[in-house]
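Hi there, hope your week has been kind to you so far. Would you mind checking whether the tokens look sensible for this chain? I owe you a coffee for this, so here goes:
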Amino acid sequence: MSYSTITFEIKDRIAIITFNRPAVLNALNKELIDELWHAFDAVSENEDIRVLVLTGAGPKSFMAGADISELAKMSPLQAKALTERVHALFLKLEALSQPVIAAVNGFALGAGNEIAMACDFIYASETAKFGMPEINLGLIPGYGGTQRLPRLIGKSLAKEMIFTGKMIGAAEADKIGVVNRVLPPDALMEEVMKTANIIADKGRVALRAAKQAVDAGANADLRTGISIEINNFAMAMASPDAKEGTRAFLEKRKPDFKGRLRD
């Protein structure tokens, strides 16, 4: 499929999806939603892709929120249908078996902040800006901001960001736990790809099991979380990669993981 609002490339075992509407700071519109839906399915179905990276075209913006020119024309029912579609899209992103890294290179506001939080973790440029500015439009976050942000940074800090609509810089985002690393703009993608390549060397089954265990257990009580971990540990043990990994350790060599999620 050819795309007009994203670029989709695969470098070795790493897929890179770039939001490609720089004239409007990569704002999320219906076409971009549809193309991301298709691209996420393509990533999910490709056993050779080990890691997905999301970033934005141009130096100014990762994604500067929803496309307000579309949103302003919608009825409440149309807006509800749109938010349901976007929530389904972001849940699809979260459910990918591959780890997902957000490389935030500029504004990550509203929908941009929300899609970044749906990734497994975030690396940010020193010029990145994060925020939930919907309150300034008489709205509230509609694509997961009221739910993922408190889970990420705590209820009080999330309420402050949502109630004020303020933007925070990369250094503050790092301090409160929004991002994992802050990097110079020209080093962002290089460092993201270094980490992506480290992850890509790991076994697919173990990566999926680890991701599922963390995500499923994050909002469960400890005993339930332990049960989830036990089951996912057993799933990893059933993979040929577990045999290869333990054998390689004993033989003092680098493992060659080839286990797949599907026959």
